[in-house]
Amino acid sequence: MINIVEVKTKKQKKQFVDFPTKLYKKNNFYVHPLRADELALFDPEKNVSYDECEIIFYLAYINKKVVGRICGIIQKVYNQKTNSKRVRFTRFDFIENFEVAKALLSAVEQWALSKGMDTIHGPLGFNDLDREGLLIEGFDKLATFEENYNYPYYKDFLEKCGYEKEIDYLAFRINLPKKSDERVRRISNLMMKKYNLKIATAKNKKEYLNKYKDGIFDLLDEAYADLYGVIPYNDKLRKQIIDQFNLIINLKYIITILDENDKVIAFGFALPSLAKAVKKSKGRLFPFGVFRILHAKNHTSLADFGLVGVRKAYQGKGITAIILDYIVNGAREVGVTTVETNHSLETNHKILQTWKNFDDVTQHKRFRCFIKNLK
Predict the structure, then answer these.
(1) Could you give the residue ranges of the DSSP H alpha helices within 146-255?
(2) Cis before residue 123, ω within 30 degrees of 0?
(3) CATH architecture, domain 2-170
(4) Domain boundaries, the chain
């Protein structure tokens, strides 16, 4: 008999966070999220999304043994923005048992209906920088630190429960050229001069963030406003994101472009790949995890592309090429030879073409968000 229980106790919260570690114990491609960050999801003092979300967590048990988990999120800001009544599901993991998957999804569906919602979709997290999409291609590729990994049977069970495709994300692997393209560098310099642009500088990471973080988030709110699943970054969320990424930020991988009035008009960043370091520590920072992360920060041949954003007034003017040229050169200086892109929506043709402009590029993963009408 399957028993679905709402997560409330400290023990249950730990079981919720630790279940995937056990489920993927023998899997070579799963990468654990940071355990401390996942435990913080339950704490309204640490998870600022409680200000704009209703959240519920469930565990599935068989004979008192945890066999699955799921989280439901009513993202009120997104629903208001899109004039919809949707609930998201995330942290959806389960043993290869269809009845377990069905019971977990049903629990969130019934909760959604009790809250007046009429649609469920996901996997989607609390915001656009959270984990999103179900892996449907690329099961034999090591996950990045920032993305979901799941077994192939997840997709089959979701579809069997009446879920259909809403949209896909694509991810690419790019082998960097050994030398800079002088043509790109020349065009980049011309564009910078033509529009009176300059690259932001600072003495150190702290000064950089203090000077430019608000402008960067304002830019991202504008550039990504119309994309699927995106919500604006309020002040508390901005601080939370900075706190989460502060340990691994490397200025070699970041570019912020300013206009003549020092307004942020473009931004891009990558991260050194932490996948192997985090996997080895099973998502725990202590006692050795933090040292592995710090070592990987400065000693890796693989990097993960993060966000690239350009204000609408400057789109189509070659600014993206400037961003990528800068990041690629910075990454190459510290020994990076390969990058993996972030999730790119299949409908975001501009960014897809950007990745395809590289000479040695492979689309190697695909993630899907599913949807089901509840009424």
Answers:
(1) 153-160, 182-194, 205-223, 235-245
(2) yes
(3) 3-Layer(aba) Sandwich (3.40)
(4) 2-170, 175-366
Q: How far apart are CA 97 and CA 15, in angstroms?
A: 19
From the candidate CATH numbers 3.40.50.410, 3.40.50.10990, 3.90.650.10, 3.40.630.30, the one assigned to the domain spanning 175-366? 3.40.630.30
Six token digits for residue 362: 């492979």
**Count of Cβ atoms closer than 10 Å to residue 198 Cβ:** 12
> For 177-223, what is each residue's pLDDT tens digit?
887 777 777 878 888 999 999 999 999 989 999 999 999 999 999 99
**Residue with the two structure tokens 């009845």:** 99
Instruction: Quick: pLDDT tens for 134-175.
Output: 999 999 999 998 899 999 999 999 999 999 999 999 999 999
Give pTM, 2 decimals.
0.94
Q: Using CA of residue 306, residue 311, residue 316, residue 318, what is the dihedral sign?
A: negative
Other Cβ atoms closer than 10 A to 28: 8
Nearest CA to 144 out of 288, 282, 29, 248 is that of 29
First to last CA, the chain: 28
Contacts with 289 (C-beta within 8 Å, 6 or more apart), sequence order: 277, 278, 281, 283
Q: What is the DSSP string of 72-105?
A: EEEEHHHHHHHT--EEEEEEEEE-S-HHHHHHHH
> Which amino acid makes up residue 99?
E
CATH topology match: 2-170 vs 175-366: yes
How far is it, in rounded angstroms, from Cα 150 to Cα 158? 12
